[in-house]
Design brief:
The complex is a heterotrimer of chains A (360), B (302) and C (582).
Chain A: H1 30-33, H2 35-65, E1 71-72, E2 75-76, H3 77-103, E3 110-113, H4 121-138, H5 144-157, H6 159-163, E4 197-199, E5 216-221, H7 239-249, E6 251-255, E7 275-279, E8 291-293, E9 298-300, E10 307-309, E11 315-318, E12 327-328, E13 330-332, E14 338-340
Antiparallel strand pairs in A: 1-2, 4-5, 5-6, 6-7, 7-12, 8-9, 9-10, 10-11, 13-14
Chain B: H1 20-39, H2 50-64, H3 66-69, E1 76-77, E2 83-85, H4 92-101, H5 123-135, H6 145-148, H7 150-156, H8 161-182, H9 184-187, E3 194-195, E4 201-202, H10 210-219, H11 234-249, H12 263-286
Antiparallel strand pairs in B: 1-2, 3-4
Helix pairs in contact in B: 2-5, 4-5, 4-10, 7-8, 8-11, 10-11
Chain C: H1 24-36, H2 38-41, E1 49-50, H3 58-77, E2 86-88, E3 100-102, H4 103-113, H5 118-145, H6 154-176, H7 181-195, H8 201-209, H9 218-248, E4 262-267, H10 268-293, H11 299-302, H12 321-329, E5 335-337, E6 340-342, H13 344-372, H14 388-408, H15 410-417, H16 421-460, E7 462-469, E8 475-480, H17 484-491, H18 514-528, H19 537-553
Helix pairs in contact in C: 3-5, 3-10, 4-5, 5-6, 5-10, 6-9, 6-13, 7-8, 12-13, 12-14, 14-16
Classes of the chains: A alpha+beta (360), B mainly alpha (302), C mainly alpha (582).
């Protein structure tokens, strides 16, 4: 046993109630005592290995003969065939090896002595002495000026690697970007038309008269499909720029009975004939939402079940979201198409530190 | 027992047994019924006029639907003010065809989620009910096959061969993107269904008749939103249905898909099958093997 | 100690070794030895002894899964393109032709449909990752429940916890690489987590994504973390883990012939090479069969990531399920201080709880040592029942984990069991506090009652199931003594010692840290309270004496069938006749 130097533990009773009976007598296996059993076990192991080899060959055959189009029982034949043959080849090797170890390899229990984890005293002394001598020779303890300036230099010399990480983003770090979406692309420019609302993945702008009560429309800015109309170029709405805009500008429209709407303060004219528009991006961590329970106009996010009441200015009625869903003021242009009256008046999507609570 | 024929030999006395009359009666009934069934004039074979259909529908409606939906489909409120059955004045024939055709209606009880079950009515009866409800107001009509079936549509446009194949593939691709934009949030990426608030659910939409999918989008059953033709145009609806059918026809490339419910079920298999088999193998590997009470014949020291 | 180890065999061969001419293998070995001193290096390793028990192989599942991940992962890198550059797909999978997507997604489709065996590789890689983390978890539980984390293995425990943490992050970056809708939604959530960090959140988000979300840098950055940075650290840590295992030697269950100073088992060459090597093939084979027959992450059905699209049933992979669950059940706590938003509803489940849990895990051996004051080395394992408080604590943590995990799948539970998702959330908000408490209490009492049963067995023997009726009419059950082996196994455990602080030393000086020591003593008492200790020699002798007396009274029953001996596992039952046979 190791040291009992710890004074806080009382002494243990030395006598154990039952002494260690020692290793039990070895019991032989049938394969040790019966040559027939031994031979049979050998044959079994060999057949596992041979089976494995056959499966490997089958793998190659299937690889060559079966192409990606073929199916078997409704599954992809290539995947099933290659995987099953490879799997059985591996299992054949594994089972064979284990069977060999269990039945044929020597299985006497063997004893090995442990050594304490602690190094022996002599080794410790030698090492300590070496440490002392070495440290003394370096002079680091006697020369505080060298020591402190060394530490200072070492501490700082790694900083460049950290500092250059600032350019992980070569673009702007301005948080103001979070406050602008493509819905406001033409705000402030009288010559350009207001942003029409387009059906996502279909592309056509929406007439207010198109929608019936109960319709839920998944929308994006019309600029995605006709950028020039709004003073933008194709390059502004493709590639990862498009993805960035999508992550902020995704929108849902819902038409309900005008009487059902409880408008927020100052939002009495934000709807058009009972059609309301809200950001599709959840204010929790940013998943898009379009699970609407039509009968209650509750919008449920699939990620963490935040629920928003679309008839009540997007108020949170259940779940972890901390803020109501941003609403977009709607208007109708001369031809009757639904347009965004302006950009959102608050940042869409997840909360962030700089986000002001009051709307602008 | 008295009824047993014990006097086998005396044929004349037992030519008419006690049961003979009964047997003759049964035979007579069978004969009459059979003759009637084969020879009686066919009833519902001829086309009925619209009026008759609506009248028949009204009769069926009063018996099966009016308890919850009111005698004129105006809807009934409970004492507490909740809806027992919503008004049906503007739901249209399409809604009836969907609800009754999938067996959801007549519902056994109101609830967060009315389940699908075996339809209670046959096709003619459903047509009658649909005609009646359509007569109550303005609602969407039952779609034509070219509205919801891409093959029927392309054939009607006269496309053949490679043009046909290309057009169908383009429709499927478009439909997939529209499906992902509008439907997967509730019904999941391959239409396996998803949870809605307070016990509701967006049901599995795979293996469902194309017509019913069209009608469900059009009419917004229970808490589903409507996707009227002004929301998702009819050809886009047809594309979505084409995509769903393509998913059904597609092989499961990677093996059994476990119902298409995503990472939760995959994690379950990783634990039950993956770890289960590996730990099982470990138990086998370390287990004591068979022992014998004999000792080996060759000289060995322990 | 009383074990005589000089008589035990150290070889299995039956004939002595004879000198022979060096074979070809011998010549190669000689060449190597002349340069690497292999003879010295391998001196002790070839016949190194490992004890045998199935629960010692759980860590091996993780080890072999890691190897499989390296093999399948390296092959996958030959085809995968980690770029977010936009491309229009014109490949084999028809429903996505003409759709804009990133190169990463397009190359994932190519691997799945054009590379023969590519889908198999992807699926094997993903299944193996899930098994890897699961195996690490059950290995951690085994080590903790059996007390193998105690001195001198605390460092190995810490290394293990780091491996678990890194494995989780590796998995997350890995399944996000194909840039599909499901994993992209997870990356979006990660952006939300970053943004919720106070002060630096917005900047962190813009730095990591190279601009506003989603940017064009995240996939290549995840890629290099996933194939270079983390695997490098994992390899180093696994190396350290194995090295420590070899240095300290494996722990073993107490039993006849086993002591704190020895290891009893089988040698590395040949038995463990065969068993471990075979197990590698079996784990690999299971992974391959799963990759063949069970579909996982069918990215072509999700489609490329699009911030406007989402699927119902959006969950991370299972090992991230518990933080996701916490995120689902936490109430909408968000405070606003002087124009700044503090999102407790995100910080608590994601930024605070996971680091807290990992830290608690890592500190467990040290806290235990502080409470018990036990500074001895331990190489013999403890049965979980013999450490009731420790076992109950871990079960309580597991219950918490399970509640959070269930919360992560609340929408799947809702549709499969036809429940209301809102009710599930409300239930779990309460359950996550109450259930772990109940689990702790129940587990602890269960362990103690098992200890009591063990003590009964030692003192009074085992129950034979034979009911005796005395002439006065009283019923009693016949007990027979347990074998020496079993009795030894039940007593091969340490006695628990409550820590008693030293109040004043020999000269009457009060000890410093008085209050902390008092706390320590109280915790130690709580830890060992109600534990049933093994009987002392006197108690055993007294009990045996008592048993002998009873046997005397029942002497008339000896030799008669139903004296109970047929059930002691030593006598055969064949020749026994039942009374009804007469």
């Amino acid at each position: 046993m190791s040291d009992a130097h710890d004074n806080s533990l009382p002494a243990l009773p030395e006598e154990e109630p039952i002494p260690n009976p020692g290793l039990p007598e070895h019991q032989w296996r049938p394969t040790d005592v019966d040559p027939k059993a031994e031979k049979r076990a050998e044959r079994q192991v060999a057949s596992y290995f041979v089976g494995s080899m056959i499966c490997t060959v089958l793998f190659i055959v299937i690889y060559v003969a079966v192409d990606e189009d073929q199916t078997i029982a409704g599954f992809g034949a290539s995947n099933v065939g290659l995987g099953v043959t490879f799997g059985l080849a591996l299992l054949g090797m594994g089972v064979g090896l284990i069977h060999w170890a269990r039945k044929l390899m020597g299985d006497h229990e063997i004893v090995e002595m442990r050594h304490p984890a602690r190094s022996p005293e002599e080794d410790r002394e030698v090492t300590l002495k070496a440490l002392e001598t070495g440290t003394e020779e370096s002079g680091i303890l006697r020369r505080p000026l060298l020591r402190n300036t060394l530490l200072g230099g070492l501490g700082l010399v790694g900083l460049p690697a950290v500092v250059i990480l600032k350019d992980l983003n070569t673009g702007s770090y301005d948080v103001d970007q979070f406050y602008h979406t493509l819905w406001g692309a033409t705000d402030g420019d009288d010559k350009l038309p207001k942003m029409r609302i387009a059906r996502d993945s279909i592309g056509t702008p929406i007439l207010a008269s198109d929608l019936e009560i109960g319709d839920l429309v998944n929308c994006v800015p019309h600029a995605f499909y006709d950028p020039e109309r709004y003073g933008l170029t194709e390059a502004d709405v493709e590639g990862h720029k498009l993805q960035v805009e999508k992550s902020k500008a995704a929108l849902i429209l819902l038409r309900m009975e005008p009487d059902d709407i409880k408008p927020g303060k100052g939002r009495e004219n934000w709807d058009v004939n009972g059609i309301v528009a809200y950001s599709k991006i959840c204010t929790h961590v940013g998943c898009p939402i379009s699970l609407n329970e039509r009968t209650t106009h509750h919008l449920l996010c699939p990620c963490h079940q935040s629920t928003f009441d679309l008839a009540d200015a997007g108020r949170v009625v259940f779940g972890p979201a901390g803020r109501p869903l941003p609403q977009l003021q709607l208007d109708v242009d001369e031809e009757g198409y639904l347009v965004a009256a302006s950009d959102f008046v608050e940042p869409v999507g997840p909360s962030f530190w700089e986000r002001d609570y009051d709307e602008r | 027992m008295r009824l047993l024929n014990r006097s086998v030999g005396r044929l004349s006395r037992h030519r008419r047994g006690r049961l003979a009359g009964l047997v003759v009666l049964l035979l007579g009934l069978l004969l009459t019924g059979g003759l009637y069934a084969t020879l009686a004039p066919a009833q519902a074979g001829k086309a009925e006029s619209q009026e008759e259909l609506v009248k028949k529908g009204r009769e069926l409606f009063l018996v099966s639907c009016s308890f919850c939906h009111g005698k004129n489909g105006e809807g009934i409120l409970t004492k507490r003010g909740d809806q027992l059955g919503p008004p049906l004045t503007d739901v249209g024939a399409a809604a009836v065809d969907f609800q009754v055709g999938t067996g959801r209606m007549p519902a056994q009880q109101p609830g967060a989620q009315i389940p699908r079950k075996n339809p209670a009515f046959n096709e003619e009866e459903i047509a009658a009910l649909a005609a009646y409800v359509a007569s109550l107001g303005q609602g969407p009509a039952i779609p034509e096959e070219t509205d919801y079936d891409i093959d029927a549509y392309l054939e009607s446009q006269g496309l053949k061969g490679d043009d046909y194949k290309e057009a169908k593939e383009a429709a499927i691709t478009r439909g997939g993107q529209i499906f992902l934009s509008n439907c997967t949030a509730c019904h999941n990426f391959e239409g396996s269904g998803g949870a809605m608030p307070r016990g509701g659910a967006a049901p599995k939409i795979r293996g469902v008749d194309s017509k019913y999918i069209y009608e469900a989008m059009l009419t917004g059953p229970q808490s589903m939103d409507t996707f009227s033709n002004g929301n998702i145009p009819p050809d886009a609806k047809r594309d979505i249905i084409a995509y769903l059918n393509a998913l059904d026809e597609q092989p499961e490339y990677g093996g059994w898909g476990s119902g298409g419910l995503g990472p939760v079920v995959e994690g379950m298999w990783a634990w039950l099958i993956g770890l289960g088999l590996c730990v099982g193998a470990a138990v086998w590997i370390a287990s004591h093997t068979t022992r014998s009470s004999k000792k080996p014949s060759k000289g060995v020291d322990a | 100690m009383s074990v005589e180890t000089s008589q035990v065999a150290d070889t299995n061969s039956t004939t002595p070794a004879t000198a022979a001419k060096p074979s070809r293998v011998g010549m190669v070995a000689n060449w190597a030895d002349e340069r690497l001193a292999l003879g010295t290096a391998m001196k002790k390793q070839l016949r190194k002894v490992f004890p045998d028990h199935w629960s010692f192989m759980l860590g091996e599942i993780a080890l072999w899964s890691f190897v499989i991940l390296l093999l399948t992962g390296t092959l996958l890198t030959l085809w995968f393109d980690p770029s977010m550059g936009e491309t229009t797909y014109e490949g084999t999978y028809a429903p996505l032709r003409g759709v804009h997507m990133s190169q990463a997604f397009a190359s994932s489709l190519e691997i799945s449909f054009d590379v023969r065996g590519g889908l198999l590789l992807r699926q094997m890689h993903h299944w193996s990752a899930m098994i890897f983390i699961g195996a690490m978890m059950i290995h951690l539980l085994r080590v903790f429940f059996t007390g193998a984390h105690r001195k001198p293995r605390e460092l190995n425990w810490v290394v293990g916890c780091l491996l678990l943490l890194l494995g989780t992050i590796e998995g997350f970056t890995g399944y996000s690489l194909p840039d599909d809708l499901l994993s992209g939604t997870g990356v979006r959530a990660a952006d939300g987590f970053m943004k919720a960090t106070p002060v630096v959140g917005s900047y962190m988000s813009m730095a990591v994504f190279g601009g506003e979300f989603p940017g064009d840098s995240i996939i290549p950055r995840f890629y290099i973390v996933h194939v270079l940075l983390i695997p490098g650290i994992l390899l180093a840590l696994i190396g350290a883990h194995m090295l420590l295992l070899v240095f300290h030697k494996h722990t073993q269950w107490p039993g006849p012939g086993k002591t704190e100073q020895n290891v009893v088992g089988y040698p590395l060459l040949p038995v463990y090479m065969a068993k471990a090597g075979g197990f590698f093939f079996i784990v690999f084979g299971v992974t391959a069969l799963m990759g063949a027959l069970l579909s996982i992450n069918p990215v072509w059905k999700y489609g490329p990531y699009d911030p406007t699209k989402v699927t119902a049933g959006s969950q991370p992979d299972w090992y991230m399920g518990w933080p996701d669950g916490l995120l689902r059940i936490i109430p909408a706590w968000e405070t606003h201080l002087w124009g700044h938003t503090v999102s407790w509803n995100i910080m608590i489940p994601i930024l605070i709880m996971p680091p807290l849990m990992i830290t608690i895990l890592m500190l467990l051996p040290f806290v235990e040592q502080w409470i018990t004051g036990d500074k001895r080395e331990h190489h013999l394992l403890q049965r979980p029942r013999n450490a009731p408080t420790r076992t109950a604590f871990m079960v309580s943590l597991m219950t918490f984990y399970a509640c959070a995990w269930a919360a992560g799948g609340n929408d799947i539970i809702a549709i499969k069991l036809h429940l209301s998702i809102n009710q599930i959330t409300y239930f779990l908000r309460a359950a996550i506090f109450i259930l772990p408490l109940i689990a702790f209490i129940v587990t602890r009492r269960w362990c103690i009652s098992l200890q009591r049963h063990d003590r009964e067995k030692l003192l009074h023997g085992y129950e034979t199931g034979i009911i005796m009726r005395s002439p006065e009419g009283g019923y009693s059950e016949r007990h027979l003594p347990i074998s020496d082996t079993e009795a030894y196994k039940l007593t091969a455990r340490d006695r628990d010692q409550v820590y008693v602080p030293e109040e004043v030393d020999a000269d009457g000086v009060p000890a410093p840290n008085g209050r902390i020591n008092a706390l320590r003593a109280r915790l130690s008492k709580l830890m060992f309270a109600d534990n049933i200790q093994k009987p002392t020699r006197e108690e055993l002798e007294e009990a045996h004496h008592h048993v002998d007396e009873e046997h005397e009274l029942q002497a008339a029953m000896e030799g008669v069938p139903a004296d109970g001996h047929q059930f002691d596992g030593i006598h055969t039952v064949d020749e026994e006749r039942l009374r009804s046979d007469d």
